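Example (one chain per record):
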Amino acid sequence: MSTNNLENEFFGIGIQNGKTPENLGVLWRSAQNMGASFIFTIGNRYAKQACDTHNAVKSMPYYHYDTFDEFFKNLPKGVRLVGVELGDTAHHLETFEHPRRCAYLLGAEDHGLSKKAIQKSHFLIKFKSTLSLNVAVAGSIVMYDRGINKPRS
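Predicted structure:
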């Protein structure tokens, strides 16, 4: 891959209707450590992140959107939305080829992604698991997989 292609790779990660400040803080800290370019939240269920001990919010761009429609309308051109959701149509993370430019969207543990987010996602991915994972853990696994399985497209 040429240097130019590497410069054009980036990703962000966020949560729709996040439930607990601890999960958001842990996810943001992981995002900072694993090379995310930006972080975001959708919905009103969020607060100051006590677990963001590295202060990722001040170290990388943070965006908040009141609604999914507002978020989707503001996705940068060429960015693919990758929803993390259990479901029959979701790709297994183990075989998924990460887009070069994307935003990973996780849902709250108690509700998952909204129907609209699932419908609008360019890709859905899931883990080999019958139960949902903690949102911060799930996001960290996705970012780790991206790091070891570099984007090809």
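Caption: The chain has one domain: 3-148.
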